[in-house]
Amino acid sequence: MDFYLVVIGTLLAAICMWKIIAVAQTYKKNIALYHQKKIQPIGKYHPIWGHLYLFSGFDEVIDLCSKVAGQTKARIVSYWIMGFFPVLCVCHSATAKVVLKSSEPKPKHPGGGYNTVMGWLGDGLLLSEGKKWERNRRLLTPAFHFDVLKPYVSIYNKVFDIFLDKLEKATSSGSSVEIYNLVSLATLDTMLRCSVSYDGKVQQQGSNHPYVEAVRTLGHLSQKRVMSPWYWLDFIYYISPSGREYSKYASYVHDFDEKVIRERKKLLTADPSVLKKRHLDFLDILLTAKDEQGIGLTDREIRDEVDTFLFEGHDTTASAISWQIYMLAKHPEEQQKVYNEVKRVLGDRQDVEWSDIQEFTRMSLFIKESLRMYSPVPGIARVTTRDMDLDGVKIPINTEVNIFIHVLNHLEESWTKPEEFRPDRFAEDSERDPYGYVPFSAGPRNCIGQHFALDEQKVALAKLVQRFRVLPDPNNVPIPNKEVVTRAKDGIYIKLEKR
Question: Phi/psi of residue 178, each to 5°?
């Protein structure tokens, strides 16, 4: 017995020593990055806290990186987490291109921004990697074919009719109204109708709808956890009050999705011809998709993709539309150009049709510039699965690399007067590096639903300007808050005049 204990003890000691050596070697590689001249740290390094003492949220990280990149002209800026883990922040299109053209996965390690949503979103397209991601991307691509997207336009019209009625009622006395929450309800309504054909009167019930409350709370708790290192480890987080709340709402969302999936599977089993009697939604395609071996998605994979689609499709689009409405109010001359085009294309019709969307050329420029000014997703991240060369610097394996879209969108090197709102810049400059403007990411892991999102935005803006003149509220100027999604710290307020 003593002999076996000695052997086991020796093996455990060897494993511990191997781990210590591996950590030491990784730290040695990482610390070498700090001394690279081409990588500019955002401030003074603390041996224990790294750079965490410099910021309390992701918004401040982006602002610091933007400031340092602007002052030093550095293409890569770095900050350190807890003194051990470097995060590299790409602030130039040429460098971003190298990362985005690869298929590097998202960082899901403890402390990584994507880790905080895994318990909610699972291993869908946003977070999956390798062969699974490649397979599921192929299976989901048909869900965004033009023939599938066309029938959604009628849904957009219905959803935003409800939205505009709520806006009209809220501003009938001439007072201003906060639009971000209302837009968010509308985009969630759209996603539920288009993805799983669920009409739960989301906008009518407002924030009282349990699904709305669950999604908002999960998003808030996920962002909060990112900046709380003591909660990075799951076994600690899930016994905390925040972790228990997160689990409660994640369970509700999963139960909701699983019920919808079960009912749809039952319907399709009883009557397969139902798919020919109506337009396909996202769930139909998930349930019927088969790979080259004739194997479909598991129930868990379907749930993960539904959760991912609902979150990404409603929250980011809500940000885009809200800031676009603010830009309409802030720039009346641009609003007039958009209105003139909508009037020309629609005439006396109230609803937007599929063929109209391609005619909104001026609106397209307006939307592009709005997405540049206020990128719905201010930053995305990858983790290296191999040593990678960035601007002549050897980046070691397992290094987190952030591509700060907000910074790319405001570089003076890429944009003339970047703080000036000028939609015509997208009609004038055709030689700009396409990787300098990536509101929907780029490369193989770009946003699969970008056409869906842009179509929805165009319908929303067309119906809004057709019915109202949008005015700013001078007493409430929104302050961007660049977290996981770009929101406004105290909301976005506007006034409306009936046309």
Answer: -80, 125
Nearest Cα neighbor of 380 from 82, 105, 149, 81 is: 105
* Tokens at 450, concatenated: 């970008």
Sequence-separated (6 or more) residues with CB below 8 Å from residue 139: 286, 289, 290, 291, 297
Residue pLDDT, tens place only, 280-303: 889 888 888 888 888 888 989 999
Low-confidence winner among 205-209, 211-215, 311-315 (lowest mean pLDDT): 205-209
Q: Which residues contact 262 (CB under 8 A, 6 or more apart)?
A: none
pLDDT at 4: 56
Q: How far apart are CA 416 and CA 439, in angstroms?
A: 18
More confident residue, 18 or 251: 251
Rounded Cα distance, 291 and 144, in Å: 17
Mean pLDDT estimate for the chain: 87
Dihedral angle over CA of 213, 214, 220, 222, nearest 10: 180
Residue 168 class from Cβ within 10 Å (0-12 exposed, 13-18 middle, 19+ buried)? middle
pLDDT of residue 17: 66
Determine the average pLDDT of the residues in 390-410: 88
Structure tokens of 248?
Answer: 């409660």
Q: For every residue of the chain, which 3-state class applies, written as one string?
A: CHHHHHHHHHHHHHHHHHHHHHHHHHHHHHHHHHCCCCEEECCCCECCCECHHHCCCHHHHHHHHHHHHHHHCCCEEEEEECCCEEEEEECCHHHHHHHHCCCCCCCCCCCCCCHHHHHHHCCCCCCCCHHHHHHHHHHHHHHHCHHHHCCHHHHHHHHHHHHHHHHHHHCCCCCCEECHHHHHHHHHHHHHHHHHCCCCCHHHHHHHCHHHHHHHHHHHHHHHHHCCHHHCCHHHHCCCHHHHHHHHHHHHHHHHHHHHHHHHHHHHHHCCCHHHHCCCCHHHHHHHCCCCCCCCCCHHHHHHHHHHHHHHHHHHHHHHHHHHHHHHHHCHHHHHHHHHHHHHHHCCCCCCCHHHHCCCHHHHHHHHHHHHHCCCCCEEEEECCCCEEECCEEECCCCEEEEEHHHHCCCCCCCCCCCCCCCCHHHHCCCCCHHHCCECECHHHCCCCHHHHHHHHHHHHHHHHHHEEEEECCCCCCCEEECCCEEECCCCEEEEEEC
* pLDDT score recorded for residue 20: 58
N- to C-terminal Cα separation, the chain: 89
- Token representation of residue 149: 């997207």
